[in-house]
Amino acid sequence: MWKWFHMLASPPHFYRIAGLTIPWFGWPALVLILVGLYGGLVLAPADYQQGDGFRIFYVHVPSAIMSMMVYGIMATAAAIGLIWRMKLAHAVAAASAPVGAWFTFCALATGSLWGKPMWGTWWEWDARLTSELILLFLYLGYIALRSSIEDPQRADRASAVLALVGVINLPIIHYSVVWWNSLHQGSTMFNPGAMSIEMKWPALSMLFGFMLYYGAVLFVRLRAEVIRRERNAAWLRQELAL
Amino acid sequence: MQTTGLLKAGGLLYSRDLRLAFRRWEQVTQPVVFFLMVTTLFPLALSPEQAQLRQVAAGVVWVAALLSALLALEFMFRSDYEDGTLEQLVLSGQPLWWLALVKAFAHWTVSGLPLVVTSPLVAASLAVPTGAMMTVVASLLLGTGILSFLGAVGAGLTLGVRRGSVLLSLLVLPLTMPALIFGARAVDMAIMGDEPAGPLYLLGALFILSLTLGPFATSAALKVSME
Question: Where are the domains of chain B?
Answer without folding.
Answer: 6-226
